[in-house]
Amino acid sequence: AANLKLESKLAIMEQYVGKKVIDAVIVGPKVDVSAVKERIVIQEVLEASDIPYRHDRQLLHNALEKALQALG
User: Alpha-carbon distance 9 to 43, whole Å?
Assistant: First the structure.
């Protein structure tokens, strides 16, 4: 799954759910979002400065806030 493109991951998740349910995604700056259409995309640095494979809580919080604001 790590090698799949974002749009493929979204398609797989929604295939299991049975319908389009994902309105927004939050991803890091290295993710290719060019093929993602009709969804809100929040693309920002999310990793912690001391442990790169973990999310920085404040950065993630800020990204979640932006996604919620964009959803209305």
Answer: 16
Asked if the structure places residue 17 within a domain, the reply is no
**pLDDT at residue number 47:** 96
Query: Global pTM?
Result: 0.87
Would 44 be classed as within a structural domain? yes
pLDDT tens digits, 37-51:
999 999 999 999 999
- For residue 14, is it within any domain? no
DSSP 8-state code for residue 31: S
Task: Let me know if residue 51 belongs to a domain.
Answer: yes
Alpha carbon distance 5, 32 (integer Å) = 7
Instruction: Identify the residue whose tokens are 């404040």.
Output: 58
Element (H, E) at 26: strand 24-27
